[in-house]
Amino acid sequence: MKLAIVTETFPPEINGVAMTFGIIARELGRRGHAVTVYRPHRPDLPGDSTHPEFREVTMAGAPIPGYPLLRLGFPAWRRLKNLWRRDRPDLVHVVTEGPLGASAVSTARGLGLPVTSSFHTNFHAYTGHYGFAPLRHAALGWLRRVHNRTRRTFAPTAGLCTELAGLGFRDLRVLSRGVDTRHFSPTRRCARLRADWQAGPDNPVVIHVGRMAPEKNYELLFRAYAAMRAANPRLRFVLAGDGPLKARLVRENPSAIFAGFFSRDEIGRYYASADLYVHASLTETFGNVFTEAMASGLAVAGFDYAAANQFVRDGENGLTVPCDRPDALVAAAVRLATDENLRTRLRTAAPLSLAGQSWENVITYFEADLASVVHSAPTPT
């Protein structure tokens, strides 16, 4: 197939959506598909825009106000129309619902091209975290309109597909997330890195990896950390990542170790060198960090939804608590900090739970879904 992937976030940006479609573009290209990625230009980031597996076309865009780590692509009806008339793709897949993505949906429909989309981010849920709660219904209406104008919308879990169907989204399919066990594995544990954290054999390390932003529920995360540290003063807390909250978090939490921003490959060494992972966010559509932590051999605790709901058997390979019970998450975190036998048992079981969750399997299903859309599309006249 000749595939056009339109996204407002892509490597070298580091986030779950960028990582997911960086892998998908690469692997689809390796399977012989002609893949072109359309994404906003990022002259501020290092990176090689030439890839053997796919082609990149950069588009105009601008930093998101107050969040310069990410960019919005500008609407590009005319440019996309000219490009796709000259080199017609078999299918357009739209990854993000911003101005660039929405214009790609309209352009594809206008040209009679099959177009599909992905739902990755609960933007309507984010409105309350950024002081725009009254706009929640408007944000949800925008998302629903963008996706329902495509032939198929992919979401990361069956549970999210059910939730979106109840909100009026149509033609839903699952596009799960794989785990690269070369990068995320207990074998990458590093004694030198633990020494940098002043962590000996009796110092459990809890790590958090992710975007430091309000929707990630850092208030609850640090509340859990305080309770863990009170119950086990030998505990170390390491955070890797960046974001708009970082300066305040560093200032307010002098006992925590803020490690910085790392590549996907390097962050695997950080996961594996820790012992525990506590996931406090309630706005994830999947939560790649959760499965990466499990694959790295960490004892995990989180709310019972998204990836945790899909992969954790409570008490066997991790701990889960109801989504409306923040106190229960704090209690689960304290259990992990104080019960060495429980930690050891969960850490052993966690990587085994992801044995079948390879990117190869995930992309095979996605490839078949895209092919079915192409083959069912009417022949252009």
Would you kindly provide a written description of the structure presented here, covering whatever features stand out?
41% of the residues lie in helices and 18% in strands. The protein contains 15 helices and 15 strands. The longest helix has 18 residues, at 359-376. α1 packs across α15, α2 packs across α3 (99-110) and α8 (218-231) packs parallel to α13. The chain has helices at 16-30, 77-86, 99-110, 123-126, 136-148, 158-166, 191-196, 218-231, 246-252, 264-273, 288-295, 306-311, 326-338, 340-352, 359-376; strands spanning 2-6, 34-40, 54-59, 61-64, 67-73, 91-94, 115-118, 153-155, 172-174, 205-209, 236-240, 257-260, 276-279, 299-303, 319-321. β6, α3 (99-110) and β7 (115-118) form a beta-alpha-beta unit. The model is unreliable at 122-132 (pLDDT under 50). A 7-stranded parallel beta sheet has the order 3-2-1-6-7-8-9, with helices on both faces. It is of the alpha/beta class and 381 residues long. 43% of the residues are buried. It has 2 domains: 2-177 and 358-376, Rossmann fold (3-Layer(aba) Sandwich), CATH 3.40.50.2000; 186-352, 3-Layer(aba) Sandwich (Rossmann fold).
